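The records we work with from here on pair a chain with its fold. Here is one such record, which you should read through line by line:
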Amino acid sequence: MALKSDKNLKLYYSIREVAEMFDVNESLLRYWEKEFPIIAPKKAGGNIRQYTKEDIENIRLVYHLVKEKKMTLAGARQRLKQNKESIRDTAEIIDRLRRIKEDLLSMRKELDYLT
């Protein structure tokens, strides 16, 4: 997944922060909010969206299905209805494998530099 930030201390995140985490436009997040009922950020005064960690996790699932697996929105909605837990597990495994790959490539560069 394209999650670029590991902010664990905040309760709420702005739409800008969430968009940056996934490297997507804010307008895409607003569109997904209309298309996927599982994405439902709290709205503060002036209609300012406040995303929780659960909202971000749900966006991560949609991102995985739509951007990484190239599913249609209708297909992603159907898949989420069928087996949300399985999708979450698969997305987490893919994230972990990507981080391991990045770590290994970094180690390889350091070793190449030493030799």
About this structure: The chain has four helices and two strands. Residues 83 and 93 are 16 Å apart (CA to CA). The mean pLDDT is 86.
